[in-house]
Structure formats: C-alpha cells, structure tokens
Design a protein that fits this description.
342 residues; alpha/beta; 2 domains; 14 strands; globular; disordered N terminus
C-alpha cells in the first residue's frame, strides 16, 4: 500500500538512498502487481516488524503540478509538461507497506510489495505506481529505497492486550496483514505460537486479484495457529457464486453481515428516508450493491464468535471510504478499532 507524498513528508529527514534490484515481479491484473526487491550489493535492509513500511523511489517518474482547487477546496493536480507538451519526469519517493514477513527478509534478504495502480481525483495515474506497474523487469529492474524501515501499525503497538484480533484489508490494504499472518504462522511452527485468535477478511474486486489466496488457505488449513481466512470479491462471477469458495460483497458489508448490521447501502437509504432527501440516489446505490455472503465453509455464527466485544481489536487498512464505514460498524458492534493511515 502506498501513501503520502514526495520526498520527506513522511520519512522526515531523509537517510541514505540506496539502489535496490527487483528480482521477481508478478502482475495479478493490469492494475495490481507483486514484486520483490533485494538491497544494494554489500548491504542488507534494516530489520523490520510486520506492518511497517519503507520508502521506494524512481528518478524517471512522471511529474505533476498543482493547478488550482476542486470545488471542495482540495488541491487539484495536472501533468507537468514542457514547452513541447511532453510530461516531465523526475524523482518520486513514496512509502510502501512491506508484504513479506520479517522471517522471509531474514532468510532470503528480499522485501516483497503488493501494489495497486493509484488513480488520483481527475483520473491521473499515480506517479510512482504507474512506473512500477509498467516496468519490464527483463530490461529494467532498478528501484531506489531509503535505508530506513518504520511504522507503528504492528500487532504489538495496535493490538496489545486483546485476545481476539480481526484484520480487514481491502485491495492492497492486505499488505500489513499478510506480513503479520505469515510471521505468526512461522512463529507457530517454530515453537513460538501466539495463542490469540486471528481472523482475516480480505476483499478485492475479483478472485484473480485475491493476492496470497493460496498461501492463506494453506496457513488456515495447517492449524498451527488459531486463524480464519475470509476472502470476498465485490465483482463475483457465476463461477464464484456457484463454487462458494470465496465470499461475495465488499469487505465492509461482509463485516456488517457478520456483526448482524444492515449493509452500508441499506443504512444510507434508511438515513435518506429519515432526512427526506437523497432517497433516489440511495435506492439506486442499494440496487447496484452486491448482497454479502460468506464462503460456503464459514457461517455467520462461527465468524461472529471470533469478535467478542471488549476483547477484540479490529484493524483495517485499504480504501479510505471502506475503512471509515468499517470503523462505524465496529463501534456500533462494540468493538475497538484502529486503522493504518498516513
């Protein structure tokens, strides 16, 4: 997951930049990719904790410039072009959450990332993510990184004192959670089992975009730790509905169904009717929404039992709108919640 702006606005005073190399890249779709980076020759990445991030960069990323404001006062950006109309390029550095587990970094030396092509308001592609998605790693494998790994979105910082941990990741918001789950699993099989109950809900558009799906199923089946994996897709195919191997619906609505709450669109329609305005728009949104359903092997009662109020921390990462609604639902159900934000 990427967030933040240009050099220094999150990382503070910038430490050393080094030249990394992409040694593996797998595109899940035209807008999603997974890749691994090894450090500059002669160096190792700094130690990490699952959930942390590092800044990556390129010196040939398309640049943008501020061009007024949107009606709501937020800044508007456009491509920065020269006199010939060509888009200027330059250095762009942005933080990305690490998807590999710390044990993988220690064993193999690489860091792994799960990245989406960002689209800004107005339709501009993300400056760095657009470069990462189109990179042909047969001919271009260089990526700079800042020699510092930081972040407090970790289990120790955000879920200490809770014996039930629920993770809800939308899209590439899975990144901190896959790192946590892989580390928890490795700890368990090497004799350092965390006895808490962990539940992961991962939502994406399609089955093909459910990154790490097979690996998470294997971790769940291993029973090395108390872990339940609930994948769901918001654009289900007939095959998805018939097979029942993944849930259907947006992550926030799947969570709402587990908690016995109305879907977000149903709640919005009720609010519109109470206010006497926006009813047509709310009805249309409800008609277009996908009714949530769990994978066939899970029941609402089974998953709900893993979220007792007062003993559960619900962590969320991903789409800002989805995270906001998840926070509302969690509060309504009496769950404590925290989110990754920049």
């Amino acid at each position: 997951m990427a967030a933040g702006g240009d050099d220094g606005d999150i990382m503070g005073a910038m430490p050393t930049r080094r030249a990394g190399t992409i040694v593996y890249k797998r595109d899940l779709s035209s807008i999603l990719t997974i890749f691994r980076v090894v450090p500059e020759v002669g160096y190792a990445f700094p130690p990490s904790v699952a959930g942390q991030y590092i800044a990556l960069g390129r010196d040939d990323a398309p640049l943008t410039k501020r061009d007024g404001e949107w009606p709501d006062g937020r800044p508007r950006y456009v491509e920065d072009t020269d006199d010939t109309g060509a888009v200027r390029t330059g250095r762009v550095v942005r933080p990305y959450t690490i998807a590999s587990a710390p044990w993988e970094q220690e064993a193999y030396g690489y860091l792994e990332f799960y990245v989406v092509l960002e689209l800004s308001r107005g339709g501009l592609s993300g400056r760095l993510s657009s470069v990462l998605l189109r990179m042909d790693t047969d001919n271009d494998r260089q990526l700079t990184y800042v020699e510092r790994i930081v972040g407090t979105f970790t289990l120790a910082e955000r879920a200490g004192g809770y014996d039930h941990v629920v993770m809800v990741g939308s899209g590439t918001g899975l990144a901190p959670f896959i790192s946590m789950v892989k580390q928890l699993h490795n700890d368990a099989v090497t004799g350092r089992r965390d006895d808490r109950r962990f539940t992961l809900i991962h939502a994406n558009r399609t089955h093909e975009e459910l990154a790490y799906h097979a690996e998470l199923l294997e971790i769940e089946r291993a029973h090395a730790l108390d872990f339940v994996y609930l994948p769901t897709v918001s654009r289900p195919t007939d095959r998805d509905r018939a097979a029942g191997l993944v849930g259907v619906g947006r992550g926030n609505n799947v969570l709402r169904s587990v908690l016995g709450l109305p879907a977000a669109e149903e709640a919005a329609l009720a609010a519109a009717r109470a206010a006497g305005s926006g009813i047509d728009q709310a009805e249309h949104a409800l008609e277009r929404s996908v009714r949530p359903r769990l994978p066939r092997h899970l029941t609402l009662e089974t998953v709900r039992s893993r979220m007792p109020p007062g003993r559960t921390m619900l962590l969320t990462c991903g789409n800002a709108r989805a995270m906001a609604d998840i926070e509302v639902a969690a509060r309504e159900a009496g769950l404590d919640t925290d989110k990754e934000e920049w």
